[in-house]
Design brief:
The chain is of the alpha/beta class. The chain contains eleven helices and 15 strands. Helix 10 links the parallel strand 12 and strand 13. It binds S-adenosylmethionine.
Length: 360
């Protein structure tokens, strides 16, 4: 059970982008590899390109050396052997336990995965029922330890075939299959509120969430109507200027925390620097990137969260071009910054970007 491949889970339809991205990182780490995937499968396999169990091809190294936070299109990942394990029709546990023992590790968490496709989702019930039996068996074999650095992953391609591997707890998604389960808040104006909630959860750690988005902080929301993103900041006691020609939800306006300006988002500038710029407009990604970069270089905002809608083709190249443009402009303006980007679970044909700076 030599770990010579990495499995990456992604949104169905974005396998090419997920593959392109991990291949670039593998090349940077001088890891010879090729990709195995198929369209709409919602997962990608990066396979070390040597049939030998050569230590240089150990993907356990790669999943700790590459910063998972830098991957935009991967929701979750883990290292495993390229050998797909075939299971018997009944009593699958012994074969699975054998394979796990062969990994020679202990685990602090156990995750049962499947692809985010209709076929994959049909495994949900099976996985939920199987997991407690597996966990009990692992406890008996003393393969679970609260302090272990690894999470055990079982990725079922169907109920009779599984890849078994592991990911570093501190360099992978804490949410099962990289999917955060959020409840639509009853009073929020639109479903896209979930996108902003997920973005805050993904890009900011707990401490940052409570110190960087808090009482009395100021926000400009470009393309705000009907107010799902604004709502998230109002919930956190921030004052929001909402820019949109369209109407905002009346209940949100009645909080007294929102000023609505019916003007063009591309020409508006605030009188005073704001803590957050947020922007969710269905515009060309380069156009939005230039706007965001200008807000930073002209000193209008300290931090930003925004969406980049993806074009139909060459999506990875388009994303990289936008991020490079922003990086260049902020560096030229001498702004100490961090750019993070992710295709969140609630994103469709888009990614979300977060820029934080150390400036006030
Ligand atoms: C996807 S919606 C925003 C949804 C919002 N984030 C929410 O959570 O409810 C995009 C909004 O951008 C606005 N918009 C697009 N171009 C704009 C522009 N140039 N100036 C101001 N608003 C614009 C549209 O009117 C639309 O309401």
């Amino acid at each position: 059970m030599f770990p010579d491949q990495i499995i990456l889970l992604c949104r169905p339809g974005f396998e090419k982008e997920c593959a392109g991205e991990i291949m670039e990182h593998a090349a940077l780490h001088q890891f010879p590899a090729y990709i195995q995937t198929s369209e709409q499968s919602a997962f990608v396999r990066l396979v070390g390109s040597s049939p030998e169990a050569d230590e240089k091809l150990n993907t356990a190294r790669l999943i700790t050396d590459i910063d998972f936070q830098q991957l935009i299109f991967a929701r979750q990942w883990f290292a495993c052997s390229r050998d797909l394990i075939e299971l018997p029709d009944s009593n699958r546990l012994p074969d699975i336990l054998d394979a796990i023992e062969n990994l020679n590790e202990t685990f602090s968490e156990v995750e049962l995965d499947y692809a985010d496709t209709n076929e994959g989702k049909s495994l949900n019930k099976f996985c939920r029922q199987f997991k407690p039996h597996l966990v009990n068996a692992l406890k008996k074999k003393q393969l679970l330890s609260a302090h272990a650095r690894w999470r055990l992953h079982l990725f079922f391609t169907d109920s009779l075939h599984v890849y078994i591997g592991f990911a570093a707890i501190d360099n992978s998604s804490a949410d099962a299959m990289g999917i955060i389960r959020l409840k639509m808040p009853g009073s929020a104006p639109s479903r896209s509120t979930l996108k902003m909630e997920e973005a805050i959860h993904w890009f900011l750690n707990r401490e940052q969430q409570s110190t960087m988005i808090t009482n009395g902080m100021t926000v400009v929301d470009l393309g705000a109507a009907p107010g799902g993103w604004t709502w998230q900041f109002v919930q956190r006691d921030c004052l929001v200027t909402a820019i949109d020609n369209g109407p905002m939800q009346p209940a949100l306006m009645q909080t007294g925390m929102v000023e609505h300006l019916q003007t063009d988002a591309f020409t508006y500038t605030p009188k005073k620097k704001v803590d957050w710029l947020i922007c969710d407009m269905a515009e060309r990604p380069l156009h939005v990137s230039r706007l965001i970069a200008r807000w930073f270089s002209e000193g209008h905002c300290s931090n930003a969260i925004f969406n980049l809608k993806l074009p139909m083709k060459k999506r990875l190249v388009a994303v990289q071009e936008c991020l490079a443009l922003i990086e260049e402009k902020l560096t030229a303006a001498n702004i100490d910054h961090r750019i993070q980007a992710k295709q969140l679970y609630h994103d469709r044909e888009e990614i979300t970007v977060c820029i934080t700076t150390t400036q006030n």
